[in-house]
Design a protein that fits this description.
The protein is α+β, with helices and mostly antiparallel strands and 275 residues long. The protein has eleven helices and nine strands. Helix 2 packs across helix 3 and helix 8 runs antiparallel to helix 9. The longest helix is centred in the middle third of the chain and has 19 residues.
Length: 275
């Protein structure tokens, strides 16, 4: 048990990552120094399970404790340095696995949301397939429910009007999260964008992958089929890039573009200087 006397391999790995990020090799050396018996296969198996449970996220070769899990366990651990960019700065990350990308995306957004408070958020996605990533549906629903729980207004434009797009809209909308379907919106279909205050977070896939996903949504009607197909496409068609920019002018411009089909109260616009 974590922080107890009888610790599992998962506990030792979690404690190591609470101190700092590690590669799998570094974790092996850490465990060896602690006289914890562990095979390479056992370490990777434990890391995969910790990632699937949203305890750990992976960036490149590095493993780090997830901000989402850390916030749930607030008060148990020492304060840490949060993700933050100065105005004009940006950061770029690349991923080969969709579940690692999705977990790290939520990890970064958790820090940005703490920084900006209850500032309304805006999102664009050609298709909302992130909730179909194996093992991520509950996490995705929890992410959007967070807006309602904390009275934060959020607006999402989905760039499709297929049967599955409508299912995503109906399952993720709530009193504080409005969703609009617009297959004609003039935004690059390789980009999945979130605007949080003066931050712009863009998840960029290849043009070939974007085309295949569009075709899948046009032909498939069943969530299980599309879930399997999306997973296979990401395995075959390369890495995904995540770009985080602290750019107030770009954020304001994108908000204005995405807000056109939503009713946003004047007092909300004025309070946060949205446009």
């Amino acid at each position: 048990m974590l922080l107890g006397t009888k610790k599992t391999l998962y506990d030792h790995i979690t404690e190591a990552l609470l101190q700092k990020s590690h590669t799998a090799i570094e974790l092996g050396l850490y465990l060896k120094d602690k006289n914890v018996p562990a095979t390479v296969q056992g370490i990777y198996k434990a890391l995969r399970e910790l990632i699937s449970e949203d305890v750990v996220v992976k960036q490149g070769m590095q493993y780090v404790i997830s901000n989402v899990w850390r916030e749930k366990a607030v008060g148990l651990f020492a304060p840490k340095s949060r993700f933050k960019l100065s105005p004009g700065e940006d950061a770029i990350y690349r991923f080969k696995r969709l579940d690692h990308l999705d977990a790290f995306w939520k990890h970064v957004l958790a820090d940005i949301e703490i920084e900006i408070g209850n500032y309304p958020t805006f999102h664009f996605t050609p298709h909302q397939f992130w909730s179909l990533v194996p093992g991520r549906k509950e996490s995705e629903q929890e992410f959007y429910k967070n807006f309602e729980d904390h009275n934060i207004y959020s607006y999402t434009v989905i760039g499709g009007t297929t049967h599955l797009d409508k299912i995503a809209r109906d399952s993720l909308k709530n009193n504080f999260h409005q969703i609009h379907l617009d297959e004609h919106i003039n935004i690059n279909r390789c980009d999945h964008i979130s605007i949080l205050g003066s931050y712009v977070v863009t998840t960029r896939i290849s043009g070939r992958l974007a085309q295949h996903i569009d075709m899948a949504y046009e032909t498939e009607q069943d969530e299980k089929n599309i879930e399997k197909l999306i997973s296979e496409l990401f395995k075959k068609l390369g890495s995904v890039t995540m770009i985080v920019e602290h750019n107030e002018h770009k954020a304001q411009k994108l908000r204005k573009r995405l807000a056109q089909d939503f009713h946003i109260p004047r007092e909300l616009q004025d309070e946060f200087n949205l446009f």
